[in-house]
TrEMBL record:
An annotated GO BP: DNA replication
Signal peptide span: none
Catalysed reaction equations from the record: 8-oxo-dGTP + H2O = 8-oxo-dGMP + diphosphate + H(+); 8-oxo-GTP + H2O = 8-oxo-GMP + diphosphate + H(+)
Keywords, sorted A to Z: DNA damage, DNA repair, DNA replication, Hydrolase, Magnesium, Metal-binding, Mutator protein
Record bears the keyword Magnesium: yes
Protein name: 8-oxo-dGTP diphosphatase
Similarity comment: Belongs to the Nudix hydrolase family.
PROSITE patterns: NUDIX, NUDIX_BOX
Cofactor field: Mg(2+)
InterPro entries, per database record: MutT-like, Nudix_hydrolase, NUDIX_hydrolase-like_dom_sf, NUDIX_hydrolase_CS, NUDIX_hydrolase_dom
Domain Nudix hydrolase, residue spans: 5-142
Length: 142
């Protein structure tokens, strides 16, 4: 049976030091206990960015002030075919809270496990993005 892809808006909150926020999938959902970037399904007639903003208010209690489209990935799980639309946000209002009962963790070098399978290949790409934008911490004397 062919599964129709479900559009999902996914947000990467990126702090100036390069840390990103990961959430742990709650009990009762597929892949419960796995870590992923926060986000959710895009509703009919909703833009991906609007879905991202809505999901972050609902799940985290924060308002995305700006976000840039980063990449798209399709992944077929046993339970669903998802089309993930990733955005990076460096500017938001509020401090993330767990409004839907899931755990959250700010990560530099990602140390939480297990990771949702679709998340794993993105971490290497993300390292190139986030560490390329960090200011130099040390300048060698001339």
């Amino acid at each position: 049976m062919i599964k129709i892809p479900v559009n999902v808006a996914v947000g990467i909150l990126l702090k100036p030091n390069g840390d990103v926020l990961l959430g742990q999938r709650p009990a009762g959902k597929p892949y419960e206990g796995y870590w992923e970037f926060p986000g959710g399904k895009v509703e009919p007639d909703e833009s991906i960015l609007d879905a991202l903003k809505r999901e972050f208010v609902e799940e985290l209690g924060i308002h995305i002030l700006s976000a840039e489209a980063w990449c798209g990935v399709e992944y077929v799980y046993p339970h669903a075919h998802v089309r993930l639309h990733f955005y990076i946000s460096r500017h938001w209002q509020g401090e993330p809270q767990s409004l839907e009962g899931q755990a959250f963790a700010w990560q530099g070098a990602v140390g939480v496990t297990p990771l949702l399978p679709a998340t794993i290949p993105l971490l290497e790409w993300l390292d190139l993005e986030r560490y390329a934008t960090l200011p130099a911490m040390y300048t060698a004397p001339v």
